[in-house]
Amino acid sequence: MTMCDKKSLNQIKPISYQTNQNGNVLIGGLQVADLVEQFGTPLYILCYETIKARARAYRESFEKYYGDSLVIYASKALNCKALCKIVLNEGLGIDVVSAGELYTALSVGFPSSKIIFHGNN
Known about the structure:
Distance between the termini: 41 Å
Mean pLDDT: 91
Shape: globular
Radius of gyration: 17 Å
Helix content: 40-55%
Number of strands: 6
Strand order of the largest sheet: 1-2-3
Oligomer: single chain
């Protein structure tokens, strides 16, 4: 790996990324190999700390440069209650394109004033 590649890799690692003394990868304090053994693959592992930090950084940047604004999370990327709750708690809005996505956002307490409902096209 070139130095540029190593730097790029470090920029996309989750905040909670660690390796233990055996060289095993941990995310959120959990050993990835154990998660794979328990749940199988493919396996999507999300880092709570990373999601919160990125959401906060977007919100704070927009507030700094644009004042009163609302950063919108595109729920089409991943729409589940846990992620919607993080987005809500970090002060972002959410966009939805279906009744199911709307239901999920509302089920965690999203106020309608922070929900953008638009068509699929």
